[in-house]
Amino acid sequence: MKKSRLTLFFSILYAFISILHLIKVYYFKSIGYRYTQKKWSILIIDSILDYFLVILFFIVVNKTTKKLLNKKKSWKQIALLHIMLSFVMSFIIVLCIYLFHISNGNIKLNDLMLKEVFRYIIATIDVNVLIYFFIISVIYSYHYLKKNQKIEKEKSILERQLMKTRLNLIRSNLQPHFLFNTLNSVSSLIDISPKKAQDTIADLSDLFRELLDTKEKLTTCIELELSTLKKYISILEVRFADNFSFKTIIHDTSILNAKIPYLLLQPIIENSVKHGYSYDHDDLNIILIIQKINDCILITIENDGKSLPDDFCQVKMNIGLESTIERLKSTFNENYFFKMNNNKDKGVITSISFPYIAVKTVDRSN
Fold it and tell me: Model confidence over 212-230: pLDDT tens digits?
């Protein structure tokens, strides 16, 4: 809401109040109650003058309040100034109304005029002070809401920048060591299986091209997330050969259009590979299960590798997993679930749950 809109809003609001006042006067006059001795012509003129004077004061007070807020004056100074201005407004409104009627001959100037003006000021001071503080309440409510909207907007921008930063950290963390390890695998395959080496280079090229082309991407759908993950898995299968297997189970294909943070699954798979292999675990099998339960998406990633240490909760997670949790929070607020714990049989199971939100269009530039 701009300043002009705020003034327009108050003008309409105060016009409504002024009309209500005239209706009240008409009601009391119609039942014979002597609410006021003024003629209708004088009452209407007084209401119109009061209306425009109050609107004028509203504009002045609005500008004054903005300056006070920008200068960050103490609340005592601001309160004292507004109390003084409320009395000034009451005096000026009454004085202007009387001067208008004198200039038009509606009221004759006589010796009792000053006393009459003073009596009228005293008689209406409570109403005028209430009107002034009504003006103040509208103005401060507007500036408070405007400030909150600005804070929320800045917060949203910062959260989005944070998500981009964390996503870039995942990319930068993935690229160097992953690239070197893959190139070493390709090098060893050149003489043994040139076709497989060629396919691996193609998958690596596609994966990195997609990572570079989607720098602004924060969310995607499950279908595209799995497509990106498939390229990553293909490279892992070359690196670890028969010692690695990956299986995806999707109970309902209609959930492929569900919204999901971009590169949510890759850090978890990477973490499973990094910590799943050990001296006692030469082979690693990973199962990815995606299903819809009620109105939520449940993703389960199971592996049969090395179990988590007993003090896992006290161990700081790596960049990828920390980012995964933060991006789930940024995308779904607090309406998500993330848990990583040891499986009953062996290995580790990671469970993720978040609301099902359908993506209307499949767009890689999201």
Answer: 665 567 788 999 899 888 8
Residues of the chain with pLDDT under 50: 1, 111, 175, 314-316, 362-366
* β-pair type (244-250, 284-293): parallel
Structure tokens at 117: 């003006």
Phi, psi torsion values for 219, nearest 5 degrees: -130, 160
Cβ-count burial 235-272 (b if 16+ within 10 Å, e if not): bbbbbbeeebebeeebeeeebbbbbbbbbbbbbbbbbb
8 A C-beta contact, residue 97 and residue 48 = no
Residue 304 is which amino acid? D
Q: Are 105 and 41 in contact (CB under 8 A)?
A: no
Pick the closest to residue 225 from 333, 166, 299, 332 (CA basis).
Answer: 299
Residue showing tokens 């008689």: 123
Q: Contact at 8 Å (CB) between 95 and 125?
A: no
DSSP, res 108 = -
Report yes or no: 255 and 222 within 8 Å, Cβ to Cβ. yes
**Exposure of 286 by Cβ count < 10 A (0-12 exposed, 13-18 middle, 19+ buried)?**
buried
Q: What is the helix (H) or strand (E) element at residue 55, kind and residue range?
A: helix 40-71
* Predicted pLDDT at 257: 92
* CA separation for the pair 6, 145 (Å, rounded): 12
* Rounded Cα distance, 143 and 149, in Å: 10
The 10 Å Cβ neighbour count of residue 170 is 23
The token pair at 6 is 């705020």
Handedness of CA 202, 204, 210, 215 (dihedral sign): negative
Q: Are 197 and 186 in contact (CB under 8 A)?
A: yes
Q: How high is the pLDDT of residue 150?
A: 80
Q: From CA 283, how far away is CA 267, in angstroms rounded?
A: 20
Question: What region does 263 belong to: left with phi over 0, alpha with psi -120 to 50, or beta?
Answer: left
- Residue 129 C-beta-side C-alpha neighbours within 13 Å: 10
Burial (CB count within 10 angstroms: exposed 0-12, middle 13-18, buried 19+), residue 192: exposed
With beta carbons less than 8 A apart as the criterion, state whether 362 and 219 touch. Answer: no
